[in-house]
Amino acid sequence: MALALTWARRGMYITAPNPRVGCVIVRDGLVIGAGHTQPAGQAHAEIEALRDARARGHDVRGATAYVTLEPCSHYGRTPPCSNALVAAGLGRVVAAMLDPNPLVAGRGLAQLEAAGIAVVSGVLAEAAHELNIGFFSRMRRALPWVRLKVAASLDGTTALDSGESQWITGPDARADGHAWRARAQAILTGIGTVKADNPQLSVRGIDTPVQPRRVIVDSRLEIDPQARILQDAPCWIVAAAELPDKAAVLRTAGHEVILLPNAGGKVDLPALMRELGRREINEVHVEAGSKLNASMLREGCVDELLVYLAPTLVGPGQGMFDLPPLAQLRDRRRLRLHDVARVGDDLRILARFTHTEE
Q1: Which phi and psi (to 5°) does residue 240 adopt?
Q2: How far apart are CA 71 and CA 65, in angstroms?
Q3: Is 280 a catalytic residue?
Q4: In 10 A of CB 149, how many CB atoms?
Q5: What residues have CB less than 8 Å from 30, skipping those under 6 apart?
Q6: What's the pLDDT score for residue 32?
Q7: Across 26-51, average pLDDT
Q8: Which residues have CB under 8 Å from 48's CB, separation 6+?
Q9: 69 touches 11 (CB < 8 A)
Q10: Predicted local distance difference test score (pLDDT) of residue 357
Q11: Which residue from 197, 194, 240 is spatially nearest to 214, judged by alpha carbons?
């Protein structure tokens, strides 16, 4: 199963909206076929592994398939993998986890068992879940998994009051941040960041064939049509008011303007998360300023924080979150440290909000 997970990671940047799945087929302790899920509409991991085994001249009848997610049992963009495994005559199928997709949800393994194939599930389930945390979130909550990234000094400063922030963290941390961008299907920022930094917010230095969609929260459509973020790919710009002239310019340039107002005249962030889930976005990577960061937190739209801390002291400046002071300590927002690692000279902390854990 560990090898199957390694194969699944090879599809890290290409499988969405489908999960990242790997499969290895074993006979007498030897791997005779392996594969991972291809881009949507192409072969799933099980089909790739069967093809690989046959291409190597192996007979898969009676062999064991290790797959990092329950084989699908429904017709989607491709036929059911469970049918293919039954037809191939596998003797046993070991799945890391059940598929949370309500169209599957145990039916794949049940079909295999009904066909006389021995089935096992729950092997390295935690690792399999982490690999597809966004897919699981979307299937179970109809919401993407939202990861909010910040880089700061040890005293919590993300930029000087002048806006200067390049670079608080080192090159290794910045490269690591691009890897996290690459695994998301959408990178979300706000108009404040676009105005202040004029970022591209694209993935660089990572070999990915697919760039995440850029999503810009811009209540009054203040974005400059010449902003760098708008130049190389269509963006989704989320507004709170219908401004026909400004919207027409953006739409003519190929961008989509999405209208999602809340009662206060701002963008309805929970509604935006639901919309991104509807659009089959599994993971959202947020890189924004302290105001939008705080709004995302207040609205309960963040599942985890990805924090890079540099071993420097900067003093007063811009902070991570523009949150109001608490009246009582018991009202603080609670998180759990999921992972802490050193990246170059900096510290990377992955902390999850307890409300998102099952």
Answers
A1: -115, -5
A2: 10
A3: no
A4: 20
A5: none
A6: 95
A7: 93
A8: 23, 34, 35, 36, 37, 38
A9: no
A10: 47
A11: 194
A 10 A CB-CB count for 345 gives: 13
Q: Are 22 and 5 in contact (CB under 8 A)?
A: yes
Q: Specify the DSSP class assigned to residue 34.
A: E
Encoded tokens for 352: 């999850």
Nearest partner of 224 among 191, 272, 181, judged by Cα: 191
* Sign of the four-CA dihedral 228, 230, 236, 239: positive
Considering the entire predicted model, what is its pTM?
Answer: 0.91
Residue 224 CB-half CA count within 13 A? 12
Q: Which pair of tokens denotes residue 79?
A: 């036929």
Determine what percent of the chain is predicted with pLDDT higher than 90.
77
Q: Is 339 helix (H, G, I), strand (E, B) or coil?
A: strand
Which residue type does 104 have?
Answer: V
Q: Between 3 and 323, where is the model more confident? A: 3
Residue 338 belongs to what H/E stretch? strand 335-343
pLDDT at 354 over 90: no
The helix-helix angle for 2-9 and 45-55 (nearest 10°) equals: 100
Phi-psi region of 290 (alpha: psi -120 to 50; beta: other; left: phi over 0): alpha
- 167 cis-preceded (ω within 30 degrees of 0): yes
What are the tens digits of pLDDT across the range 242-270?
Answer: 899 999 999 999 999 999 999 999 999 99
CA distance 293 to 290: 5
Q: Tell me: the pLDDT tens digits for 119-161?
A: 999 999 999 999 999 999 999 999 999 999 999 999 999 988 8
Instruction: Please give the Cα distance from 131 to 19 (Å, whole number).
Output: 8
From 353, 349, 354, select the one nearest 152 (Cα to Cα).
349
Burial 236-268 (b: 16+ CB within 10 A, else e): bbbbbeebeebbeebeeeebebeebbeeeebbb
Which of these, 70, 19, 7, lies nearest to 280 by C-alpha position?
19
Go through the chain and tell me how many residues it has.
358
**For residue 178, what is the enclosing H or E element?**
helix 171-183
Residue 194 makes CB contacts below 8 A (sequence gap 6+) with 216, 218, 223, 224, 227, 229
